Amino acid sequence: xxxxxxxxxxxxxxxxDKVIEPARQVVLAALKPQALKDxxxxxxxGHPLHPVLVQVPVGxxxxxxxxxxxxxxxxxxxxxxxxxxxxxxxxxxxGAADWSEQETGVRRLGAVHAxxxxxxxxxxxxxxxxxxRGRGTLGRVLSYAGLGMAGSSAAIGGHMSxxxxxxxxxxxxxxxxxxxxxxxxxxxxxxxxxxPALRTGEGDSVEVPLAAVRRGERVDVFVGACSHLSGxxxxxxVEKVGADECLVCPWHGSAFALDSGEPRRxxxxxxxxxxxxxxxxxRVMARLPGRHR
Length: 293
Ligand code: FES
Hints:
Elements: H1 3-12, H2 17-30, H3 34-41, H4 50-53, H5 55-68, H6 74-99, H7 104-132, H8 136-162, H9 170-176, E1 183-187, E2 196-202, E3 207-215, E4 218-223, E5 237-241, E6 244-248, E7 255-257, E8 263-265, E9 274-280, E10 283-287
Antiparallel strand pairs: 1-10, 2-3, 3-4, 4-9, 5-6, 6-7, 7-8, 9-10
Helix pairs in contact: 1-7, 3-6, 5-6, 5-8, 6-7, 7-8
């Protein structure tokens, strides 16, 4: 069995759900302030924050492993390990925020990922203590064990991203199925004022749902699948969030600015795919932006 198939099997096992769900509720309660959640998700950045932050512990720990192999450079390795331990804390918080609002299979693998990361952190913290007490050999054994643990955990994180689409924009995936031609969405007068309406766009082999929002003579058209987890945006609502009129997802409340598609409230961190619009003889025409054509 390949590693990927093994990880998929783990994601199918419900045995630990009765532990995972209470843990998720604890994370959700601890991250209650929306501003804190948005900060950790990366909503303000327009990109998930967790994969950005993990670069620091991964980079410092790998570098420390190399420096530890060269005796005169071992003091520098200790500094890097300390920097990695400090950087792992915000990286873990961002990961926990994302994990708490993911699908079941991602949460199961994410729980394994989290336990392994905490173990790696513990091994590195133990390594720092051992080095501080002059027990360099033990310190190096612990840090190499931590590197092995963190590396294995990173493989699971990669599977969550690349095979389970955790953190990926589900809207961008849906957009790729859409025709690159102008799509006739029907008469402007048929669209309700100030709330999203379902329209469909032609895809390669399937029809792609779109969410059209009319405000007077202006129409904003988005891919209908929310960038977070494909929630039906055409069943959402229009709401003011901060200074922006936003389209709000009915599933987890992510809000996207109508003018730009940028996320204004999480858990979404990726923007929502927005189509170009023109009105022609009273009919609404929409087309994918150039980056998809
Ligand atoms: S699917 Fe989660 S906020 Fe839209």
